[in-house]
Amino acid sequence: MKSYDKLIFEISKPGRRGCSLPKNTWKASVSSLPASLLRSAPASLPEVSEPDVVRHYTCLSGMNFGVDNGFYPLGSCTMKYNPKINEEAASLPGFAQIHPLQPESAVQGCLQVYHELGKALSAITGMAEFTFSPFAGAHGELTGLMVIRRWHTERNDFRRTKIIVPDSAHGTNPASAAVCGLQVVQVKSTPAGLIDVEDLKPLLDDTVAGIMMTNPNTLGLFETEIREIASLVHGCGGLLYYDGANMNPLLGKVRPGDMGFDVMHLNLHKTFSTPHGGGGPGAGPVGVTEALAEYLPEPRVKMDADGTYHIAGCAHSAGRVSGFMGNFSVLVKALAYIWTLGRENMKLAGPLATLNANYVKESLKDVYRLPVDRVCKHEFVFDGLADGSTDVTALDIAKRLLDYGFHAPTIYFPLLFHQSIMIEPTETESKETLDAFIDVMRRIAAEALSDPQMVKTAPHDTPVRRPDETLAATKPVLAYVPVAGGHAGDSVA
Amino acid sequence: MAKTIEGLYYSETHEWVKVEGNEALIGITDYAQHALGNIVYVDMPDEDDQVTKDEDFGAVESVKAASDLISPLTGVVVARNEVLEDESGLLNSDPYGNWIIRVKMDDPSELDSMMDAAAYEAFCARA
Question: Going by C-beta distance under 8 Å and a sequence separation of 6 or more, which residues neighbour residue A490?
Answer without folding.
Answer: none
